[in-house]
Structure formats: structure tokens, C-alpha cells
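Translate structure to sequence.
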């Protein structure tokens, strides 16, 4: 959430306050400071300013909380050079920090808020320090008249800083926030740590001069850098652990849709994203968005793109490697792209299999420099997990399909059908279904067709019959190949009357619409139109059957006795006689 959450009137009020109050606070600070500009040692102040800037640019990060150790140096500046010097140098370090993070146009409001906050807090705390008798150059820190104003200044600074941050969150950005947060606790710990360091720097400076910056500041900076490197390694380790967890979750999924969903969900929580997409690479020219998270609603699922009109993704395909762009300026030369203009940071990670790119994962944020090299490395690892999981899921689904389906007709085989029948009959017994009908269908004189046109033609007819049955039954039931030229249809919650109507539609469809045979053994090379009829029998539970075997046996009896023996091309029902 950035400046977009702040109303126009609030922005105008903040900028107005900044223009009026900021220069006034500096002027008041100068008036309160007993040390004039002419008395300030410029070269020494430059040394302190450099130390402040370095500490502002390389904060210590504990968990996810950045801790800035500048307050200790600011205290030493106040005690040695007065309030005005402390205010100016503190503001210089704040400006340096904002230049480093490169505040975007969308977040320009941070500039007046931060400068106004730090200048006002410094002014109030400095006024309290002077009001309590605080002075400059006195290193007798054990004297109450010296240490009490210093401790009061630090306590006031911490309190006002906490209040200001809370009010900014609640009043300006309208975010729900607690007054005491983990950040507040760490700020308190930091204040306690930097206080003695600031006092030591102050005492050494008063005794040794500018070299005190090297005695205290240099170890301080080195320690900060070491801790920052430690944090970076811990951050990478944390990412690796999370990536391993995501990998386990992906490999547990045995369906491709589940793998897609889990991957995008986990990636979008692992990295800061305003846009995340899994894009399928279909051949050399076609791209398709399989999954997407888009805060702008700019791109929809199943959007198809041509590589000729997608410069950024085409570049990734040609390069064959992951790429991270820190700002829009780095990728804006890719003029043709599906990405929204508001996006800044972008990571593109190809998903490869057998040295061929089959997909691209795109992650993007509206904030500049949201990603770094370590995150790109983690995204690469996750993409590898994703590729393996997708391949495993495809293999499992294909194996499952082959074990459940008839290779010729693509209908379910009888083994799978038996399992479905058991489950549906259990639902009938439990009262979840009111009825359960089963249709058995046998093609009439099918052997003659094989003898006349060849077995390949017979197979063509079986496939066409399967297609027609699936079209006629739709989602109301399960169609399976029973064996040879026989088919079975299971119809949950379909009573006897509706089952008869469906069976009759099937019979009429097969009898009245010829089957076109392209591959046959006749002398003619033209397409042969063949008429095929079917004998159909059905039974309905619970009226006609006490278990699954009864249901099949009674439907089978109806088909042979009531349809085939009665002249074929008929529908017969089984009725249980008392």
C-alpha cells in the first residue's frame, strides 16, 4: 500500500505543513542551539556526516526489521556541536537513505513525511535537553546535571518516534496497527545498545578530536557490514528451506492442475508480487497464460499471445536463462509486452524439460528493486521443482488414464466402471440417491460388419459409437466399454421412465444415422456408409436389484431376452416379478 491509499486532500495538507513547518523547525533549532554556524568545525562535521550516511545505508536487519544505528552518532553530534548541527546531519542521512531506495513517483509523500517527522522530533527533544540544563563539551557523564538531560533526550526521542510512526500508519495510510509492535521492541533494544556507543564517541571526540570517528565509527561500520552479510546468508537459508518445503508440496500433488495452483500460491507468498503468471510455451510461436495473479486485472487466464508480439518473453526464450529486472527502465525497451505499465521489478524464469523450455514463470512488483540475485536463484530452484512436479503429474495422469480407459474408444474400461458402480450403489444404500439405472448395449450382427468391411472398419464403428454415447449421455452418467461390441451406462438418480427415454434416444440415434467407414477392405475407395443397430436392456435399483451383481445381471437379461431374442434393434427393461 503506497501513496495511492492517501486522499488528495491529505496529500495537499502534508505538503503544505512541510513547506511551512520544515524551514521553521530548522530556524528554531538554530536559535535554540548555543553554538553558531561560525563556531562549527566544518571538516569534523563532514566526517560525522559520512559516518551517519554509511550507517543509514547499511542497517542491521533482525528478522525482517531494519535497525538503523544512526541515533548514537546523532547524540554525539548534539552533545558536541549543538541542536542545529544534529538536525542538519540527521536530515542529510535521511535524504541519503531515500536516495538509495529511490522513492518512486507513487511514494513521493515519503519525502515530506520523513523530513518533517525527523526535524520536528529532533527539535522537540533538543528543546527538552536544553530545558533540563543540557550543555556541550562536558564529559562528566556521572554527574546528574550532565547525564539526566541526555537520558531524558533519548527517552523522549524514542517515545516521540514511536508515536509518530503509529500516527502515520493510522491517520495517513489508514492501516490498522498496534502501538507496540515487534518493530517497536527492536527499536527500544537498538536505543539501549547505541546509547553507550554514542556516549563513548562523544567522550573520545572531546579528548582526541576527529580520529575518534575511526576508533569508534570504523569498528561500528565493520560490525554492521558483518551482521548484514550474516543476515543475507540467513535470508538465503530461509528461502532455501521454504523452497524445499514448496518442492515437497509440489511432488505430493498428482494432478497437473493441483501442481499449477500450489506453485503459484506458494510463489506469490514467498516473494512480493503484484503480478504472477505461469505461461505455457506451445511450440515456437504461441504462449498461453495458464495461471495468473494480477492486482490490476490486466491479464486473464487462458490469454493467448504470439511471440512475435511479446518482446520480453521472446527474449527469455532466446536467452534460455532466468532474468531479473530491478526497474521498469531496465525492461522498457521491450516495447511489446503483456505486462502492465505500472510494474517495475520483474523476474522471468524459464521452466525446462529435456533442455527444451516448456513454460515461463513471470513475477513482478510495482515497487522498484523488489528482487535480488538470491531471490532469482530461489525462483530458479522452484521452477526446477515445478518442472519435475508437472512431469510427474503428467506421467501419473497418463498412467492412470491408460489403466482406466479403453485404448480404442477412450471410454472407461470395465475395471474402472466396477469401482464407480460400487460407490454409486453405496450412495443408493445410504439414501444419497433415490434410484440407480444401468443400461447394457450390444451392437447387432457386428461380426458380419467385421467380415464384410474388415476389423479396422469394426474398430472405426466402435469409436464412433463411443463418441455418440458420450454425447447423448453427457454429465448424467458414466459410459464404459463392457467388452467386445458391448457398452454399459450407469445413471445415478435416473428412474425407470427417464432411463427408457434415454435408451430409446440412443437406439434411434444408432439405427437412423449411418456410420462412415474410410478404412475398409472393399474394392471401392469411397467412404462406405453402414447402418448399425443395437439391442438395449436396462434395470433400475432398488426396485429391480438388491446389489450390483443383480443390477448388471438383470440389465443383461433384459438385453438378450427382451431385445435380441425379440428381433434386435429394441429397448427392453427388466421388471422384477414378485
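Result:
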Amino acid at each position: 500500500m503506497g501513496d495511492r491509499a492517501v486522499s488528495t486532500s491529505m496529500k495537499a495538507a502534508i505538503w503544505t505543513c512541510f513547506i511551512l513547518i520544515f524551514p521553521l523547525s530548522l530556524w528554531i533549532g538554530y536559535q535554540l542551539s548555543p553554538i553558531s554556524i561560525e563556531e562549527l568545525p566544518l571538516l569534523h562535521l563532514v566526517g560525522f556526516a559520512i559516518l551517519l550516511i554509511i550507517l543509514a545505508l547499511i542497517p542491521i536487519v533482525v528478522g525482517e526489521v531494519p535497525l538503523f544505528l544512526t541515533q548514537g552518532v546523532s547524540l554525539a553530534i548534539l552533545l558536541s556541536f549543538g541542536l542545529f548541527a544534529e538536525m542538519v546531519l540527521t536530515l542529510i542521512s535521511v535524504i541519503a537513505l531515500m536516495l538509495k531506495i529511490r522513492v518512486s513517483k507513487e511514494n513521493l509523500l515519503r519525502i515530506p513525511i520523513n523530513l518533517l517527522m525527523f526535524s520536528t522530533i529532533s527539535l522537540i527533544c533538543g528543546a527538552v535537553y536544553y530545558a533540563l540544563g543540557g550543555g556541550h563539551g562536558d564529559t562528566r557523564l556521572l554527574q546528574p546535571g550532565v547525564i539526566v538531560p541526555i537520558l531524558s533526550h533519548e527517552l523522549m526521542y524514542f517515545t516521540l518516534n514511536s508515536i509518530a510512526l503509529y500516527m502515520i500508519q493510522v491517520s495517513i495510510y489508514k492501516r490498522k496497527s498496534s502501538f507496540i509492535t515487534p518493530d517497536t521492541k527492536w527499536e527500544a533494544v537498538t536505543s539501549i545498545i547505541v546509547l553507550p556507543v554514542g556516549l563513548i564517541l562523544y567522550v573520545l571526540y572531546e579528548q582526541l578530536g576527529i580520529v575518534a570517528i575511526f576508533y569508534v565509527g570504523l569498528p561500528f561500520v565493520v560490525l554492521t557490514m558483518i551482521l548484514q552479510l550474516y543476515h543475507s546468508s540467513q535470508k538465503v537459508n530461509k528461502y532455501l528451506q521454504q523452497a524445499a518445503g514448496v518442492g515437497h508440496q509440489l511432488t505430493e500433488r498428482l494432478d497437473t492442475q493441483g501442481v499449477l495452483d500450489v506453485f503459484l500460491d506458494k510463489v506469490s507468498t514467498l516473494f512480493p508480487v503484484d503480478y504472477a503468471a505461469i505461461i505455457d510455451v506451445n511450440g515456437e510461436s504461441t504462449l498461453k497464460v495458464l495461471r495468473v495473479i494480477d492486482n490490476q486485472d490486466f491479464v486473464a487466464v487462458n490469454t493467448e499471445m504470439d511471440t512475435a508480439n511479446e518482446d520480453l518473453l521472446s527474449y527469455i526464450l532466446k536467452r534460455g536463462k532466468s532474468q531479473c529486472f530491478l526497474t521498469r527502465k531496465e525492461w522498457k525497451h521491450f516495447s511489446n509486452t503483456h505486462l502492465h505499465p505500472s510494474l517495475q521489478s520483474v523476474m522471468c524464469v524459464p521452466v525446462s524439460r529435456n533442455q527444451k523450455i516448456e513454460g515461463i514463470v513471470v513475477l513482478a512488483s510495482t515497487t522498484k528493486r523488489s528482487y535480488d540475485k538470491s531471490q532469482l536463484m530461489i525462483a530458479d530452484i522452484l521452477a526446477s521443482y515445478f518442472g519435475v512436479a508437472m512431469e510427474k503429474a503428467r506421467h501419473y495422469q497418463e498412467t492412470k488414464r491408460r489403466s482406466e480407459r479403453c485404448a480404442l474408444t477412450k471410454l472407461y474400461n470395465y475395471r474402472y466402471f466396477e469401482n464407480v458402480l460400487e460407490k454409486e450403489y453405496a450412495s443408493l444404500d445410504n439414501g444419497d440417491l433415490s434410484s440407480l439405472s444401468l443400461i447394457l448395449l450390444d451392437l447387432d450382427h457386428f461380426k458380419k460388419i467385421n467380415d464384410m468391411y474388415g476389423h479396422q472398419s469394426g474398430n472405426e464403428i466402435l469409436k464412433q459409437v463411443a463418441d455418440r454415447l458420450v454425447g447423448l449421455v453427457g454429465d448424467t452418467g458414466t459410459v464404459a466399454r463392457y467388452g467386445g461390441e458391448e457398452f454399459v451406462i450407469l445413471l445415478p438418480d435416473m428412474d425407470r421412465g427417464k432411463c427408457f427415454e434415454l435408451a430409446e434416444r440412443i437406439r434411434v440415434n444408432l439405427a437412423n444415422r449411418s456410420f462412415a467407414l474410410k478404412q475398409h477392405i472393399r474394392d471401392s475407395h469411397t467412404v462406405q456408409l453402414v447402418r448399425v443397430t443395437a439391442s438395449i436392456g436396462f434395470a433400475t435399483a432398488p426396485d429391480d436389484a438388491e446389489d450390483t451383481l443383480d443390477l448388471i445381471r438383470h440389465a443383461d437379461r433384459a438385453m438378450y431376452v427382451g431385445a435380441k431374442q425379440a428381433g434386435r434393434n429394441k429397448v427392453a427393461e427388466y421388471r422384477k416379478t414378485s
